[in-house]
Write a structure and sequence with these properties.
Helices cover 18% and strands 26% of the residues. The protein is of the alpha+beta class. It has 3 domains: 75 residues; 102 residues, Thrombin, subunit H (Beta Barrel); 303 residues, Extracellular Endonuclease, subunit A (Extracellular Endonuclease, Chain A). Helix 1 packs across helix 5 and helix 2 packs antiparallel against helix 4.
Length: 655
């Protein structure tokens, strides 16, 4: 202990002696202040220490720093909680008022709604406190601090959050335990998984995160805490309810020697609001695990703030209740979808209006002649745009030469591109066009532009390859070539995707050349996988997809010489979706040693593609019943039962 620390404690003890703090501390001790047991001390031992002049304590074998810490904790005690009741509430009146005990009793009913935020698959077992702030019917909203949630989750550009991946490519998670009181056994019935974080503040906003849990069945006492009508007032009596933890930011001598038994269990710490200026401050005793604790007004029996930071024996800060109310009302500060970083010119891009596309028939579902291959059915969450020239049969299809696009307005990109491939009528056309176009049959502001693709690592990736639709007459091939250069046919792709260009872009050619196809024709669907894990492309409001899918359908002759429909599905990914699929199906052993790295192409079953994260709600109809990989996976003699093939070589495709 430094001389400076000792001298500062002697000075403070002198001040406490003059203002009566030491006398009140001794009275509290005599009334049974429960913290004395944690210090291994009784009221008589404390009296003997307080009778000594502060500057003589060291010569008598006592530390002024230790005595100061004890006095501080007695005047602002972090009281233990057992069975939902606060221990020692009758011993704190000396530092508050005669009604403090009854005030604490009135708010004890809120204690069951405060829990410990625990982490799953993380090196840290837990990281803070959370409490019920809103009832949403089937779910309850839990509020904590951003800096607590960020241990396991990251913010998306939409303002919500997704769980991150940790070492070993295992996804993190979180739960809230409403128990963990002193002298209590763990109770699994009080532990609830935080399904997702619906709000995670950015780094310049109030330190708040909001998650959702299923509403507890039969536990009506776990309910939203009431929010005060107005922000706190100076000198208002308040308290935090939370889980103080060992905090290396504090002096070790205070933490280890004088907080024995204090850590990790639910505590009730009364105090006072210090100021109500720009920062809401209080002097309740808190440690690191208190992050996310409710700041309860004992005068009004309601929450006035969310504790987020503090320094032991100095001051603590909280987010105002008015800010919490604004967040619940949907007024959280966030980026506005569709805004651009600047108003840069788009002179290099050109528009095409509805008249330009006259005569385009789009995707032909009957292209294979013997069987129809309709467009897949998509989930409503994609919010498909409706072109100005839509038909009753195709209300959402942007029709181009030999292909069509179903465009997601909310993602500012294609949800599905569907094209017809006729290898027998291919026309080679040199790539000479450098202009990209906006399709004004849908709103311009839901389409990206040249500036949005300005980052050196981001490519403007064709969903329908320029070459694949260049067939038919010379005029048709040229028209198809030009049509492929519309932003509605592009999705942002990281340059890392180029590592698998041969395996990905050559799929259609390889399948047509190696399958016993009928008429050398195919119907091909492709698109991005939009997941909550996607990061934002700059400030565009559009996601940067990390996975892409493709489904090929054709007529092929089998070993029995019967011509039947043949459908195969593929995924371009670093492997996360594959791993999640295998874990979901209980094939965890197949993920051992799985490493993410460069982008790879996988062949998967059509039925599995429909259920992958981000693809829920996609329905490819009968194609799932004509998948050769599905037949192989169900064959007892199959060497590998798992329905996934990594295509490091195209020759590995199951046809």
């Amino acid at each position: 202990m430094s001389t400076a620390d000792t001298q500062e404690s002697i000075r403070r003890l002198g001040t406490f002696a003059q203002d009566g703090t030491l006398d009140r501390a001794l009275t509290s001790a005599r009334q049974g202040n429960p913290l004395l047991d944690e210090f291994g001390m009784d009221a008589d031992a404390l009296r003997q220490l307080l009778d000594q002049p502060p500057h003589q304590l060291q010569s008598r074998g006592e530390s002024p720093v230790r005595l100061e810490a004890i006095v501080e904790l007695i005047r602002r005690p972090p009281l233990t909680i057992e069975n939902g009741k606060v221990n020692g509430k009758n011993s704190v009146a000396e530092f508050f008022d005669a009604e403090i005990s009854s005030k604490i009793t009135r708010v004890e009913k809120f204690i069951p709604s405060v829990g410990r935020i625990e982490f799953l698959n993380h090196a840290m077992g837990w990281g803070g406190t959370g409490w019920v702030i809103e009832d949403k019917g089937d779910t309850l909203r839990i509020v904590t601090n951003r800096h607590v949630a960020k241990h396991v989750a990251r913010r998306t550009f939409r303002g919500d959050a997704v769980y991150a991946f940790g070492p070993g490519n295992v996804k993190y998670g979180a739960q809230v335990d409403f128990g963990e009181e002193a002298n209590s056994d763990p109770d699994p019935a009080l532990v609830f998984t935080i399904a997702r974080f619906t709000y995670l503040a950015d780094d310049v906003s109030a330190d708040v995160a909001i998650g959702e849990i299923d509403k507890p069945d039969g536990l009506d006492h776990i309910a939203p805490l009431p929010l005060a009508e107005t922000d706190g007032e100076h000198d208002e009596t308040v308290a935090t309810v939370g889980y103080p933890a060992y905090d290396t930011r504090n002096a070790h001598v205070h933490m280890e020697r004088y907080f024995k038994g204090l850590y990790d269990v639910k505590r009730f710490a009364p105090g006072k609001l210090i100021a109500t200026g720009d920062i809401l401050s209080h002097d309740c005793t808190t440690l690191g695990g208190n992050s996310g604790s409710p700041l309860l007004s004992l005068d009004r029996s309601a929450v006035v703030g969310l504790h987020f930071a503090g320094a032991y024996r100095e001051t603590n800060s909280a987010v105002r209740v008015s800010t919490l109310k604004a967040l619940l009302a949907g007024k959280a500060p966030s980026q506005v979808l569709g805004t651009h970083a600047s108003g840069a010119t788009e002179a290099a891009d050109k528009p095409h209006d509805e008249a330009f596309f006259e005569g385009r028939t789009g995707y032909d579902a009957d292209f294979l002649r013997a069987v129809s291959v309709p467009l897949p059915t998509l989930p409503d969450r994609l919010e498909l745009a409706a072109p100005s020239d839509a038909t009753c049969e195709r209300p959402h299809e942007l029709r181009y030469q030999h292909f069509g696009v179903l465009y997601s307005a909310v993602n500012k990109g294609p949800a599905v591109t569907a094209f017809n491939l006729d290898g027998a009528q291919y026309k080679p056309i040199k790539r000479h066009n450098r202009t990209w176009f906006h399709d004004l049959r849908i709103p311009r502001d839901i389409q990206l532009d040249r500036e949005d693709y300005g980052h050196a690592d981001i490519d403007r990736g064709h969903m329908v390859r320029r070459l694949t639709t260049n067939w038919g007459s010379e005029e048709e091939a040229k028209r198809a070539n030009l049509d492929s250069y519309h932003y509605t046919n592009a999705a942002p792709q990281h340059k890392g995707l180029n590592r698998s260009r041969r395996q990905w872009l050559g799929l259609e050619d390889y399948v047509l050349e190696n399958a016993r196809t009928h008429g050398f024709r195919a119907c091909v669907f492709t698109g991005p996988v939009y997941t909550p894990d996607d990061r934002e492309l700059g400030n565009t409001g559009a996601p940067l997809p990390m996975h892409f899918w493709k489904v090929l359908a054709m007529l092929a002759t089998g070993e029995d010489e019967v011509i039947r429909l043949h459908a195969t599905a593929y995924l371009l990914s670093q492997g996360q979706l594959i791993q999640q699929m295998l874990q979901r199906d209980g094939q965890t052993e197949s993920t051992e040693g799985f490493e993410y790295g460069e982008f790879k192409t996988f062949q998967v079953r059509v039925r599995d593609l429909e259920t992958m994260p981000g693809m829920e709600g996609y329905d490819f109809g009968p194609l799932r019943d004509f998948d050769p990989l599905d037949r192989v996976a169900q064959t007892e003699s199959a060497v590998a039962a798992k329905p996934v093939v990594e295509l490091d070589l195209l020759e590995r495709i199951v046809l």
